[in-house]
Each structure stands twice: as structure tokens, then as C-alpha cells.
Amino acid sequence: MVSERSSDVDDTKHSSTAENPDASQPHKGIGVSPGIAIGPAYLYARVSFDVEERSVDPEEIQLETARFEKAVQKAERDLHKIIDVTREKLGEDSATIFEAQLLMLRDETVYPEVVRYIENHGINAGYAVQSVMGKHRQLMEASDNEYLRERSNDLLDIQDRIIRHLRRGHILSAVEKETIIIAENLTAADVILFSRRGILGCATDYGGPTSHVSIMARALGLPAVVSMHGITNIIRTGDIVVLDGIKGELVVNPDEDTLAAYRQKQERYARLVQEDKQLVGLPAETLDGHPVQLQANLELQEELELMKENGAKGVGLFRTEMLLLMQGRAIVTEEEQTLLYQKVVESVKPYETTFRILDLGGDKLLPMGHREHNPFLGWRGIRIMLEKKELLVPQLRAILRASSTGPTRILLPMITTIREVRRFKEILEETKAGLRSEGVSFDEDIPVGAMVEVPSVALQADAFAREVDFFSIGTNDLTQYTLAVDRGNDLVADIYDELHPAVLQLIRKTTDAAKMAGIPVSLCGELATNLRAVPVLLGLGVTSLSASPVYLPAIKRVIRAMKMTEGEALADKALALVDAQDFRDSMDKWLEEHACGVSFFLEGAAG
Amino acid sequence: MVEKEVTVTNRAGLHTRPASMIVRTASQFKAEFYIHKDGYEINGKSIIGVMTLAAEQGATLMLICDGPDENDAIEALSKIFADGFGEVV
Q1: How many Cα neighbours within 13 Å face the side chain of B22?
Q2: Chain-centroid distance, C-alpha A438
Q3: How many CB atoms lie within 10 A of CB A287?
Q4: Max CA-CA distance within chain A?
Q5: I want to staple A71 with a disulfide (CB 3.0 to 4.6 A). Which of A14, A117, A165, B67 is the partner?
Q6: CA A519, CA A534: separation in Å to the nearest integer?
Q7: Active site residues per annotation of B
């Protein structure tokens, strides 16, 4: 295994690892679903089937076309299963792509063409599928239309699915129980099928915390690490790997000590999860009696259950982007949105639900055909919505209508200037007036909050605090914009640091202004799931933390182990520092001493 | 045989969902269904065919139905185009 590996590695960035394959040096990524998995790796490569050409005797041609039909039937069954689970876990919109694949299986052009190919060439079904679909794929890939080029992947999916079934011993049966899947990228469908085969976890080259693979992994309780850039170049099927979904790390072929340490960590984590169940009913309150609001970040109504199980007191961030079709720019009607929002509010009350206005652009769904050189500094968030009233008004009407069901708040993404807030409020008032004249009831005093993710808002927080009812700090973007670093860019990713003193100072500016104005400040970025940051964030004056539901019990554990006075002291210390690393060390030390149950969240297993 | 000229009105053009809608609608009828675009003809009951058109907003297409229920078919099909597939126009 080991000797094979070094010859395969062509990516210079990783060659050092290949030369020292036994170094238990962890590979870094983003942990998106907590838990520890230890087991053999299974490298899942999508383009792994090159079917050999084999001639078929004339009398067996019918048998061959029948094999093709049978494989199509099995692929149909697979897809129906995938559509069902996708619908249940991710909602109707996400299932569209698989419904289209279902149509492709029996496409009026392609299906008969494959049959004719088998008959005319006297050739095996697999080769016919590959040739015919390959031809159509090439046509799509040659198109000027970027969307069509991307869709050729769907055809490849179909081709793979059929060929898998033609081969009987199809690829999924090779995915043995208790393996860890390593892939460039996975779809929600892959995760569903794999989890049914009892895999232990998955790691991918690409993806982020809100990718479908991540949401699905969390919903299924499967440890997962994404954004591991090039991990598929390093790992080979059969390598023993340790996947740490808590720290977002992966160790290949660990030595015995490392392995033993991780097994211990795995046990402790399992124990902790058990204990966390008892924490659900207890208040999130510091030792010196300061209550903290713990809320959930949600994308899908299907996550509501998970939110309750983990004891969230409301929804601090409901991302509405998932409402849009995963492909194209299909609008969701006011009616559909109202139904969904009402369902969520009804389920979350008596606690509040915070709906974030569609946050398009940046790295998220761009309006069709719209490309920018610098999307993160471009047309995104509220900048789009203020210009696209046909998107904004139906969403506002839907949120307002839902607000008569229970406590509801509106959150504005990517706010940069006061003008944007004022313009939004004008549109909101017009929308309210419309509903009023129609006799529709809604919350007249629905709170409106601004995301603090552009430094200008933190710097002018005093002015903004007079205009809005609450702040919600988005640490991911705030860090990117403050430090001018794209964390997806490997060359500069190490500059990205959410605990950089400059970022913390902006948070403090925000909380100070909020305190003066008497409005709450929530923090809904990934930083909330970084346990070492919890005491300092509270010390800085953040009043509410919002995170993916599975992370809430651990956050609560830290809160219940700290005093607010300690958090305040840490915050003062942090603000006085110029370099982040010193501070990180002191926070880790505090966490080790005080919240021992969770300190291992910070420590490598070997430490 | 009946023909009708239609325009793609939705912003996103004929991507996966509209293509599925067209194929599903066409498949409810016995009539054969073809789409002409820029001297190119595809089988309108083939989703891959429809997607290959790569028709964007503003594109003009000729719908052709041929069969016993061709009038109903062309009416149903031109209606979903006119509605912009229920999407942003």
C-alpha cells in the first residue's frame, strides 16, 4: 500500500507526505459533522469504469438488450430511493435533479440508440452505454453554455449507474461496511446510499459547512470532514485512517500510539454525547448566573427535530437560500414560502425564528448567467435583493404572514451602509401597508436585524444600532473582509483566523454599541462552534450564540463551566494582544482547566 | 401536423427543471413532438435533446406536434412556455 502510494502522488503540495507516509501528521479540512471514525479507507472515484469492448453472438443479442433493460430498471429503483430520502431530508427542490436523471434513464433519444448500438454492432451492453452516452456527453461538454456543460455530469451519473448494475457486483457492494469514504466530492444521494451500507464517515476534497453533503452527514450523524484539498491524491483504498469530524482532521496509517489515543478520544466523545442528553433540559447559564441564549442555525424544516433534541431556544439563523432550486433560478412562490415559514414558526414557538433574507452571490447561487471577477466584493446579499423587488417582496410578505403564527424576526445579509437598511425599511413598510389593506394579519413590530459581516458595519455600529432591532455577527465573512483573505485559497488560507485581535476588536465595537442602544447581539458564524472561543465571545458581550444543532450541547457545557467575570477578563486580555497565537494558547489553557469534559475538542489525540 | 413559435421567457432558460416539465408534458400525448431552433431539430420527448438546445432567455423556438392529439399537445406545451415554467421571468 505504502510504496504504491508515493508513486501515485503527483501533486507537489503533498509529496512531502508521501515521502514520510508513516508520519501521523493530520491533514486539515473543515469538520462539518462531529464524531470520530477509525477504519479502512475506501476511495470513491466516480470515473472508474472503462468498459471493455466485447462482441456478442447474434443469438445472444436479445439477451444483451434485456440485460440493458434490467440495469435501467435497477437504476430506476436506486433513483426512486434517492428521491424519497432527498425529499424527506432536503426538501422537494433538491430532488429535482434526480427526477431529471430518472427521465434521462429512459430518454427517447438515448435509450433506443443504445439498443440499436447493441444490435448493429453485436456488442456488449456496457460498451454500448458508454459509447452512446459518451457521445451525448461530449456534445454537451462542447457547448458554449456553461450550465449545459455542468449538466453533462448528470449524464455521467446515469451512465455510471447503469454500468454498475450491468456489472452486477456494482460499486456500492465494494463499499464495505465500516469503511471511511474518501472522495473528491459527494452528493447528498451518495451519502444516503453509503450510510445505508453502514459506512463510518466521509472526507472530501471540496465542499463547505452548508454543502448538501455536510447537512446530510449531520442529519444522519455521520462524522464528516470537507474541503480537504487533494486528500484523494494521498489516500488509497485500504489505508487505515482516523477521521476526526470534531477538529476537521484526518490521519493516514497512524502509528499504534496515535491510534490508541484516538480510540480513547472516540470513547470519550461517545460518553460525552450520552451525557449531553442530560444537559438538554438544563439552562445555558454561567456559574455566576448569566443566562446565554443558545439558538440553532437551520437550512431545512427537516432539521427542526434535531434542533429540539439538542435543546435550542429558537432559531438564530434560518438560511432561506435552500428554498431556491439547486439548479436554475426558479422562484419559490409567496404561497410556498408562507407555508414553510409558518410551519417553522409554529414548531419553534414560544421561541423566536430569525429568517435571513435570501443571501445570494458570493460563493452562493449566483443569478443565472451572472459572473463576476470578484464575487465576494460584488453583487450579493441585500445588494441584490434591494434591486430585485420581485424576489424581495414575496419573501417579505411570506415572512410577515408567518409572523402572526409566533415570534419572528427578519435578518438582512451583507449590509454595508445605513442607506441599505433605510431602503429596506421603506420596502418593508410598503409591504406591510399592502397586507394591511388586504386585511392580512402580521406582527406590526416585527424586529429587523443586520448581519455584521462587513467591517464598515462594526465600525459604524453606533449608527446602525439606532436603525435596527438586533445584530447578528457573521464571523466567516467578517474575518475574510477584515483580513482580506479568501479562506478557500490554499495559498493564503493560513492567514484566515477568526480569533485575530482585529476581528475581536470589531466584535467588541459591535457589542458596545448594542449595549448602549439596548439591543441583543447574536453570533451565528462557525466561530460559535469553536469551543475555545465561547468564553471570550461572551466576555466581549455577545448575548446569543447560534450554531448547527449538533454543536449546541458542547457549547452549553462550556457556558455552564465558566463565570462571566472570567470571560470578561479573557476578552480584555485578547483585545490588548497584537498576535492571535498567544491568546489562543491562554484560552486553551482556561478550557482545559475549567471545562475538562470538552477540552479534548481542542487536543489532538496524541496530545 | 401543427406548429407554433414560442419564446423562452424565464430568466434561467431551459435548464433541468423546465426541460423535465416539457418532456413530462409531451409524454402525456400520443403526438410526436419536435423542437426546432436555429436550423437544429430535436425530439422534444428526450430530456437530453431538450437540454442540448441550451435555449436561454429570449430564444425563439418552433414547436411541432404531429399525431392524433396534436392540437391538445401544442396547446399544453405552448402554455408552459408562456407561463415561464412558473419561474422568474
Answers
A1: 34
A2: 39
A3: 14
A4: 87
A5: A165
A6: 20
A7: 15
Q: pLDDT (tens digit, 9 = 90+) per residue, B68-84?
A: 999 999 999 999 999 88
- Residue A247: which residues within 8 A CB-CB, separation 6 or more? A26, A31, A601, A602, A604
Alpha carbon of B35: minimum distance to chain A alpha carbons (Å): 13
Handedness of CA A245, A251, A253, A255 (dihedral sign): negative
Instruction: Indicate whether A471 belongs to any domain.
Output: no
Q: Tell whether B30 is within 8 A of chain A (Cβ).
A: no
Instruction: Please report, for the domain that includes residue A194, its CATH number.
Output: 3.50.30.10
Query: Can you read off the three cell numbers belonging to residue A504?
Result: 475581536
- Region label for A444, one of left (φ > 0), alpha (ψ between -120 and 50) or beta (otherwise): alpha
Inside any domain, residue A30? yes
Neighbours of A58 (CB within 10 A): 9
Facing residue for B16 by CB, picked from A100, A369, A391: A100
Which residues are within 8 A (CB) of A430 and not within 5 positions of it... i.e. 6 or more apart?
Answer: none
Q: Please report the DSSP string for B11-57 in residue order.
A: TT-S-HHHHHHHHHHHHTSSSEEEEEETTEEEETT-HHHHHHT-PPT
Locus of grid cell 420527448: B45
Sign (positive/negative) of CA torsion B76, B79, B80, B81? Answer: positive
Instruction: Please indicate, yes or no, if residue A16 is contained in any of the structural domains.
Output: yes
Per the structure, the complete domain to which residue A144 belongs is given by: 58-166
- Distance, CA of A302 to CA of A192 (rounded, Å): 15
Band (A3; pLDDT cuts 50, 70, 90): very low
Phi/psi zone of residue B84: left (φ > 0), alpha (ψ -120 to 50 degrees), beta? left
Q: Write out the catalytic residue numbers of A.
A: 212, 524
State whether the Cα torsion A27-A28-A29-A31 is positive or negative.
positive
Q: Are residues A180 and A159 in the same domain?
A: no
Average pLDDT of A398-411?
A: 97
Domain count for chain A, please give it.
2
What is the four-CA torsion angle of A553, A555, A560, A564, rounded to 10 degrees?
A: -160
Take residue B65 and report the three cell numbers written for it.
406536434
Residue A144 contacts B where some CB pair is shorter than 8 Å: yes
* pLDDT for residue A145: 73
**Chain B residues within 8 A of A155 when measuring between CB atoms:** 48
Residue pair A334/A398 in contact by the 8 Å Cβ criterion: yes
A98 to chain B: nearest residue by CA? Answer: B16
Res. A333 pLDDT band, cuts 50 70 90: confident
Are A146 and A182 contained in the same domain?
Answer: no
* Cβ–Cβ under 8 Å, residues A99 and B20: yes
Crossing angle, helix A61-90 and helix A125-141, to 10 degrees? 50
Mean pLDDT for all residues in chain A: 84
CATH topology of domain B2-86: Histidine-containing Protein; Chain: A; (3.30.1340)
Where b means 16+ CB within 10 Å and e means fewer, A181-214 reads bbbbebbbbbbbbbbeeebbbbbbbebbbbbbbb
Say what the pLDDT of residue A195 is: 80
User: How distant is the Cα of A485 from the closest Cα of chain B, in angstroms?
Assistant: 32
Beta carbons of A147 and A166 less than 8 angstroms apart? no
CB A227 within 8 A of CB A245: no
Taking the CA of residue A477 and the nearest CA in chain B, the distance in Å comes to 28
